[in-house]
Design goal:
The chain is of the alpha+beta class. It has three domains: 12-229, HUPs (Rossmann fold), CATH 3.40.50.620; 267-329, Chorismate Mutase Domain, subunit A (Up-down Bundle), CATH 1.20.59; 335-455, no CATH class. Helices cover 37% and strands 20% of the residues. The strands form five sheets. Strands 3-2-1-4-6-5 form a six-stranded mixed sheet. A five-stranded antiparallel sheet has the order 7-8-11-10-9. Helix 3 links the parallel strand 2 (57-64) and strand 3 (89-93). Helix 1 crosses helix 2. The protein starts with 11 loop residues before the first helix and ends with a strand.
Length: 458
């Protein structure tokens, strides 16, 4: 299909210009391509390989889900294409596990991104080959599911991911353009037979619905993508307002019910939606959100109301709302889901550490509370074993971690996930909540830093 009037066809030059828009440091950057071997990721990898190499570091990762009989041959195909393009490639094999009623497609996607996150290097940018037609499908699916603005915004070109960013540089490129370019380069690509399974919503939409839409509105993909950008802009404004309202109601990790009750209905729901999303939990259905914003907040202080969806629930204890996971209903986890042994953290080389319970970052900050000069080049992370103590106030007594957690009313399920940071045998930090006096910045501190702990979805 020829490019639309006024629109440049896909090429390495087009991709270079797009990456300059999305990554200010390009081309002096390390890029890692999620390479499936399909036409879209082949176009992305091949075009990148044809760019001048000045400062650019490029490699690829292929995830073998082991769900199709041909998966081993697909891995070999990806190795061959990578060799032709002279791009280093690593194949990652994953085991996709799902419980009864769970979507195989969703679990495969979850396993794929977990594998990619585990292999990314410090400062490396992950690239995926989602394009304009994928965006069209995503927006329509979200619309049919009754999504709000966040859903209709669909895929953003740049999103935080595993301590770095995930970039989708092809969101303004048409799928047929990518295929035509790959064929013109004499490259072959994989055709996944599961894409023909019309029992899957996306495949049905692609095979039966979109051809009819495009016959009437040929520019549908571009115009719907523009609508998605408008929705994303509106959602950012709502997030800004939600962050301000939730911040005013914040009491540690909880929210104050009296402060929330002073907000109007729409702002209250927006603040709650923001708070839930910022804590890494699945957004509640509209009916559940209305229950939290209404009956749960209105209940008497001596009651203990609870609203649950999936494995998440919001409870109210006196005047505080707390968000936590219903672990009793959670599927059993593999024994390795939470490592108990110590983890070395060479923080100067790797400022961000991705853990099973979340993401820990230590960065330079001229106003930060951490004295970077007081830290050893390598720290050690451990989970709680009992009896840990630290001195949170210079000149004050050493306090038991158990007592600090109880005073701060940290929920039990959160306590188990907090990483403990040791310098030698000394506990110097508990996530980003408490610092030992031995590493606290003072007036004479020359190099300051700040710890940040982002808990992952439970």
């Amino acid at each position: 299909m020829p490019a639309r009037p006024g629109r440049a066809s896909f090429s390495p030059a087009w991709l270079r210009a797009r990456l300059k828009q999305l990554l200010p440091q390009f081309p002096r950057v390390s890029l890692c391509v999620a390479f499936s071997g399909g036409a879209d990721s082949t176009a992305l990898l091949a075009a990148l390989a044809r760019l001048p190499a000045r400062g650019l570091h490029l490699r690829a990762l292929h995830v073998d889900h082991q769900l199709q009989p041909q998966s081993a041959s697909w891995s070999e195909h990806c190795r061959r294409i990578a060799r032709e393009l002279r791009v280093p490639l690593e194949v990652l094999r994953v085991h996709v596990r799902r419980a009864r009623g769970e979507s195989l497609e969703a679990k495969a996607r979850e396993a794929r991104y977990a594998a990619l996150a585990a292999q990314l290097r410090a400062g490396e940018v992950l690239l995926s080959a989602h394009h304009e037609d994928d965006q069209l499908e995503t927006v329509l699916l979200q619309l049919l599911r009754g999504a709000g603005l966040a859903g209709l915004a669909a895929m953003a070109p740049v999103v935080p991911f595993a301590g770095t960013v995930l970039v989708r540089p092809l969101l303004e490129a048409a799928g047929p353009d990518l295929r035509a370019w790959v064929r013109a380069q004499g490259l072959t690509f994989i055709e996944d037979p599961s894409n023909q399974d019309e029992r899957l919503d996306r495949n049905y939409l692609r095979a039966r619905v979109l051809p009819v839409i495009r016959a009437r509105w040929p520019a549908a993909a571009a115009t719907v993508a523009r609508s998605a950008r408008h929705a994303a802009e509106a959602q950012r404004l709502l997030d800004t307002l939600g962050a301000e309202d939730a911040g005013r109601a914040a009491v540690g990790g909880a929210l104050s019910a009296p402060v929330l009750r002073r907000l109007g209905d729409e702002r209250r729901r927006n603040a709650l939606r923001y708070w839930i999303g910022a804590r890494g939990a699945l957004a509640p259905p509209s009916r559940r959100l209305a229950e939290i914003a209404g009956p749960l907040l209105a209940a008497r202080a001596d009651k203990h109301p609870c609203v649950a969806w999936g494995l998440v629930r919001v409870t109210r204890e006196r005047d505080l709302l707390r968000l936590h996971s219903d672990r009793a209903a959670a599927p059993p986890r593999a024994p390795a889901a939470r490592p108990r042994e110590a983890i070395a953290w060479p923080w100067r080389r790797r400022g961000t550490l991705v853990l099973p319970g979340g993401k820990l970052t230590l960065r330079a900050d001229a106003h930060g509370p951490v004295d970077l000069g007081a830290l050893a080049p390598s720290l050690t992370l451990r989970t709680r074993s009992g009896g840990e103590r630290l001195r949170p106030v210079a000149g004050g007594p050493r306090r038991s971690l158990k007592g600090l957690l109880q005073e701060a009313r940290v929920p039990l399920e959160e306590r188990a996930r907090l990483p403990l940071i040791f310098c030698g045998d000394t506990l110097v930090a508990v996530a980003d909540r408490w610092l030992d006096a031995s590493v606290q910045a003072g007036a004479a501190t020359r190099r300051r830093g700040r710890l940040a702990w982002h808990a992952s979805p439970e």
